[in-house]
Amino acid sequence: MTVKIFDTPEVQDFLTTVAGFDQDGGSERAKQIMHRLLSDLFRLMDDYDVSAEEFWSAVSVLNALGNGTQFGLLAPGLGFDHYLDMRMDAADRERGLLGGTPRTIEGPLYVAGAPEAEGFARMDDGKDQDGETMWLTGQVRDVDGHPVAGAKVEIWHANSKGGYSFFDPTQSEYNLRRSIFTDAEGRYTARSIIPSGYGCPPDSPTQQVLDLLGRHGQRPAHIHYFISAPGHKHLTTQINLAGDPYTFDDFAFATREELVVPANRIEDPAEIARRELDGPFSEVVFDIELAKTDAPELQVRHARPRAKEDEQDRHSQLAGTAKV
Ligand SMILES: [Fe+2]
After folding, report:
1. Using an 8 Å Cβ cutoff, are 9 and 15 in contact?
2. Does the pLDDT of residue 323 top 70, yes or no?
3. Where is region (Disordered) located (predicted)?
């Protein structure tokens, strides 16, 4: 049995009432967006003959996602984060704001307030015995090739098990999270450990949704960046390490060709000694080009609830409860 009731006056009137169009209070934009969203969903229910059983099982998944603060994990899996990037890229092109290292998704696991350093920082606490030493370095330049001194390079990444400090309570505070200001030549350097890729928890509601799509929930090994400097466009990006089985098959759609970087293993004793390390290590070089802009709002990261971003903000506090 297939019923089609969406176009009836009764349903259309009902949608107007549900969206609050006949009420004075509330937000006009919220009403319009909710009306469109509900209209699209109601039509979908007609078109796909969605049963009550299917509807309530979807509600159950939404409840589980909310309970685990996992919408921030499912969102990139369903392409929303990448779609926002595509829209911001298009907006940049429209403004004539061209060039520079490409942006890619932030993900839900940034934590504000990491320790700051000038030029160099050690990011790991030395406790991850399985972590290969990583020497992560690069130069920040503008699109004309001039070094940008004093740029703020915020870096965060997972440990050898794919876990992030703060969200993984077994790690020390701000482990594998640092803010490094570039030196006079625009260079930054971090001693850390090679991160592992990771996957959505297998029993999570996020993975439950991906299973229905026949998709995996794996990410390649990657390193997150925020880069900012006065007079330049703020950049949110990340690098994927080359050679990971998921480098070009990232469930979160963050990979961009220009952002795939090799980790080169170095065993030369002279190079090891020069960095004051104990043994062989892997070097990752990521140079960053920043586009120029005078617009102050483009020089800072866009607002979003983030862990520890704002102690007064309920949404930021909630962002810190993600169980991923
Ligand atoms: Fe990540």
Report:
1. no
2. no
3. 300-324
